[in-house]
Fold this protein.
Amino acid sequence: MKIILVRDRDEVLAERLLNVWERSVKATHLFLTIEAIQQIKMYVPQAIDAIEHLVVAVNEDNVPAAFMGMSIWDSRLIKEQI
């Protein structure tokens, strides 16, 4: 597993991150119906695109396995804690 800071985002990455999101939600949010997940899913690409600092964990095939986002405020907070 490798952690990367994503600077350039394209449609392929967006689709892969959407798949990661959907698999994660289905595995952890058992209280949500499939219909609710599909409704929320419509907004996820826009939310991912709005992330200021996007960090992605990729596997040995360079396929995203997880991701997180941080704002400038979050990254300043983390630096203060180190």
